[in-house]
Design a protein that fits this description.
This protein has 211 residues and is an alpha/beta fold. Strand 6, helix 10 and strand 7 form a beta-alpha-beta unit. It has two domains: 123 residues, HAD superfamily/HAD-like (Rossmann fold, 3-Layer(aba) Sandwich); 64 residues. The strands form two sheets. Strands 5-4-1-6-7 form a five-stranded parallel beta sheet, with helices on both faces.
Length: 211
């Protein structure tokens, strides 16, 4: 349930990346990798989750080259580095509905920051494929910070980059646990369901968006 908005004027907006700015499918990633090593998507999912390969990527503990080597060891076979990179990354679709909102916020001179659990490879793929990240002034990314949501460290990094007080920042994410952690730090946070719902939440907090 959304908390009542606080009275502080919002000056900066944080947006999660996955399933907010772009939609993604880990299932598709596992299936695409499986085709490269004669495994099912479920088998690849189990191997990668047990070894925590994605988490290691997202906190910056594995490079793309190290990820490639570790995965080859897990499946006991050789995999093309380039094909693996494409299979791992080509899992995103743009959320077209949110683009007009970002344009409007930029016109009103709000500072925009991406706050995301992500690895370098995924981030760079999204930045190259879509223009949506060009709207943002800065990025707080788990692989750079070395910490993942819901850890306080990653939110504090975003607040520092905002140049604002936590109460002057608005944040949206599709995962309720991450919203709760942001609120604990004083950030005005709302769980993402769709763009229209976020527009209403922003207007409720004094951002003069058109109906």
């Amino acid at each position: 349930m959304e908390m009542e908005p606080k009275n502080r004027e919002i000056r900066c907006c944080f947006f999660d990346m996955g399933n907010v700015l772009v939609y993604f499918s880990h299932k598709l990633m596992y299936e695409q990798i499986g085709k490269l090593c004669n495994r099912t998507g479920d088998e690849v999912s189990e191997l990668m989750n047990k070894s925590k390969l994605l988490i290691k990527m997202e906190v910056g503990k594995l490079t793309e080259e190290e990820f490639h080597l570790e995965l080859q060891n897990l499946v006991s076979g050789e995999i093309s580095y380039d094909k693996l990179k494409f299979a791992s990354n080509d899992i995103f679709e743009l959320n077209h509905d949110i683009v007009p909102l970002l344009k409007e916020l930029k016109r009103m001179n709000f500072r925009l920051i991406v706050l995301s659990n992500t690895g370098k490879s995924h981030f760079e793929f999204i930045r190259e494929k879509f223009e949506i990240l060009d709207f943002f002034d800065d990025y707080t990314l788990s692989y750079q910070v070395g910490a993942m949501k819901p850890m306080a460290t990653i939110y504090q990094d975003a607040v520092m980059k905002s140049g604002c007080q936590p109460e002057e920042c608005f944040y949206t994410d599709d995962i309720s646990e991450y919203i709760d952690s942001a609120r604990d730090l004083g950030i005005q946070a709302v769980q993402f369901q769709n763009t229209d719902q976020i527009r209403k939440a922003m207007r409720k907090r004094g951002i003069p968006l058109p109906e």
